[in-house]
Write the structure tokens for this entry.
Amino acid sequence: MDFPLGTALYHAVYNAISAFNNCGYSLFSDNLMGYQGDFIVNLTIMGLIVHGGIGFIVQYEVLLLVQGVQKRLSVHTKIVLISTTLLILSGAFLFYLFERNHIIKDAPVLTKILTSFFQSVTPRTAGFNTVDIGLLTNATILLMMVLMFIGASPGSTGGGVKTTSAALLVMLMWNRLKGNLDLNIFNRTIPREIVSRSISIIFASAFSIAIITSVLFDRRRRRSSTPGEPSRFCGIPF
């Protein structure tokens, strides 16, 4: 309804591909901020992001289950579906909690909820936004950084350390607190090789981010420092 039929179709195809591939590129200068309260656009983009982010293995198993060909889901698929659901719900709740009196303060209730869910889904490697990222609180930015770090699932169109790696790390800590040496999920013991590989990926990624961030802070400090004034990064003196 905003464009002629041909232009609308072009935008629709482009954004659909960008969403499914967890790319996040939009043809609009403000990304999708103009459609913040549009349920059709938001739900469609979110559905495509999640669909592409859960991975083709999970898609295939769920399809076989629906068709009745497969009776049970694998441990991998269960972990992906549960961790993805928990990340979306917890991310939406925290976004709403952090921004309810800030960037979404004057929005209608349904738009607040829709925005919270959208900004919970999209950081995990997609990159679309329906709010001005530069106006978010520091707590929300930290939340989005955590979601981006975790990313999508194995065999998907997204990046990150993967939802399964994050889930294995959390479950490993829970099992160790209970006194179990092995990692048991859904009455199955996860091989120690897989656990070690997942932990290595997470810590190697975190270490790389820490080093790169330190270098960026140092370069920014050197460029922005002037005699008699404290150096600033994103408005924060240090």
